[in-house]
Amino acid sequence: MSRSAPASCDLLVVGGGINGSGIARDAAGRGLKVVLCEQDDLAAHTSSASTKLIHGGLRYLEEFHFGLVRKALMEREVLLGAAPHIMRPLHFVMPHAAHLRPAWLIRAGLFLYDHLATRQRLAASAAIDLRTHIAGEALQPGYRRGFVYSDGWVDDARLVLLNALDAQARGASILTHTRCEHLTPANGAWSATLSAASGQSTVQARAVVNATGPWVSAFVAEATPVRAAHEVRLVKGSHIVVPRMFAHRFAYIFQNEDRRIVFAIPYEHEFTLLGTTDVDYQGDPAAVHIDASEITYLCALANRYFRQPLSPADVVWSYSGVRPLLADESSDAMSVTRDYALELDRHPAPLLSVFGGKITTYRRLAEDAVNLLGGILGVRAAPWTRGARLPGGDLPDGSFAVFLRTVERRYAWLPVGLRLRWAHAYGTRIERVVGGASRLTDLGQELLPQLFEREVEYLCREEFARSAQDILWRRSKLGLHLLNTDLGPLERWLAAHAGAERAQAEPQMRPV
Length: 512
Prior knowledge:
This protein is of the alpha+beta class and about 500 residues long. The chain folds into three domains: about 10-45 and about 155-230 and about 335-385, FAD/NAD(P)-binding domain, CATH 3.50.50.60; about 75-155 and about 235-335, CATH 3.30.9.10; about 395-505, Orthogonal Bundle (Helicase, Ruva Protein, domain 3). It contains 14 helices and 20 strands. It has helices at about 20-30, 65-80, 105-115, 155-170, 215-225, 290-305, 360-375, 400-410, 415-425, 430-435, 455-460, 470-475, 480, 490-505, and strands at about 10-15, 35, 55, 85-95, 125-130, 145-155, 175, 180-185, 190-195, 200-210, 230-245, 250-255, 260-265, 270-275, 280, 315-325, 340-345, 350-355, 445-450, 450. The strands form three sheets. Strands 3, 4, 5, 6, 11, 12, 13, 14, 15 and 16 form a ten-stranded mixed sheet that branches. Strands 1, 2, 7, 8, 9, 10, 17 and 18 form an eight-stranded mixed sheet that branches. A two-stranded antiparallel sheet has the order 19-20. α1 (about 20-30) links the parallel β1 and β2 (about 35). α1 runs parallel beside α4, α1 crosses α7 and α8 (about 400-410) crosses α9 (about 415-425).
């Protein structure tokens, strides 16, 4: 799959996170010639380090961010229908801690949460008796009352990837491992200098979108002659993963004395995901990592609620991301708005910078961004993404259960665990992974447990994967199941076989 860097385009999108890939998809679908460049892998940073939720943000109601919550709740409904293979409804149990919030306040908040936007796929909230509800079994015996409500779960890294794949299918050029060094104005447009392993090139762009996330302010200051009006506040959010603490399908939302909330979510069948923290961050966003104090904080909060004791020694994996929140007057990181701002500078050439945002509202942000650029770029096509499925998301009746039954009949020879993982990851694109295989031996060598050559070939050929890290932690979460496994067979295979795939995928750079 050749991905060459064109000499010119209508729109250059800098940044391959959720906002950049979403904007590239929307713009390409409206007929613009789009180039997206990302200095690392797609979703290599913030966009793969979320709590994996499509949600309105229940706690934001306490900050009176009703508009943001309503917008997010509306988008929640749209996204759940766009990619039902990588998204699913998730029910959250909130044990009632009377000294933190009175029951009437929680009921009022949940009533608003249920009614600020139309619900078609999710159940309404309700009060529950934790002494008899299955979710109460894992909790300390002092919690007797609770509430249950619904939101959505998403594979965040694959959501980014699917937007990039759809953008490419609609004509966009997706250039990973390609850094935008600087923008030079030229006759009302931009001349962008791009750097990749194969060298430097220039791309002439009528407009540029700066969707570099935590680097948004630095990019404006260091790579352009523009001076931005907005700023971002960098906030680190960290998560820990521990062996499974409960066997049922519910997640938990826990309150704390500092007014923060922490989620405990079933994760990858064998684990529980706990997070997140909110800590102001000043360092390099690419070098972010969890601190011992954050691990202690999350374990201590879990121990207030769960019967099973949790200690830092139980943590099998952790991850951190830097959220580029729109800077406001909030005194603490927890209260900073999760809304976004789009700053359009028309001189010396059109540059749109994205400040803030969250995964749940990425599609709306992308639509707003292309609408804002539409007049400059002569876009006549109407917004289109609201009702569009993402690649692999065109499941029969929009139902993963129905689709899985079809997969089970068609690929009965696949091991059950592999079949389920592939169905979730690829949806209807599973056919592109399986190809003409009709038995397990047709998938080639099993390089690592449950990872066959056929899938690795597909990921390198069609999903921009280059490294074991790309494959095991972003295209999948197999890395979590292989923490003590020798990755040598995969790494050697990539070194020996991925050269041809990489040569096809490498941007063909035109000399400066």
